[in-house]
Design goal:
Length: 159
Amino acid sequence: MQLLCNLSRKLEVVSEGLLYLLLLVMVITTFLQVFFRYVIFHSLPWSEEVSRYALVWLTFIGASYGLKRGVHVAVEALVRTLPPGPKRGLKALSYLLMALLGLVLLVYGAKLAQVNMSQLSPSLHIPIGLAYAALPVGGLTMFIHALALLSAEAKEVEG
């Protein structure tokens, strides 16, 4: 399980860098589009697609990163009233469900990406499946992070 925790930590670092990069790509392409449209009076045909695909990737990588960092929105009113034992059990169940969601995203996202590899995007002329590939990548990282968090939770109970 130590290998899983190390992999999760490395994925967290890579994900953080990718999130910054994707946000930067979105900001720059959106700024360029506005500048070209309203100052030069000539729109860039590819900027909307680049921003959209960057947002898709940012969403799925960000979801797994948020899971790892524990920053997802949660309703904790009930959880805070529970004693430590059931509280840990509920947390473990939450990680198991997140791992299951990651697995579903991985399996069905891979199928969806594969099916759409032959369809090209209108402006960039790249396979649409590359945008859909964010689902299995995000699902895999979510699965790894959830199992690492579950492992850490189990270690905390033992120790």
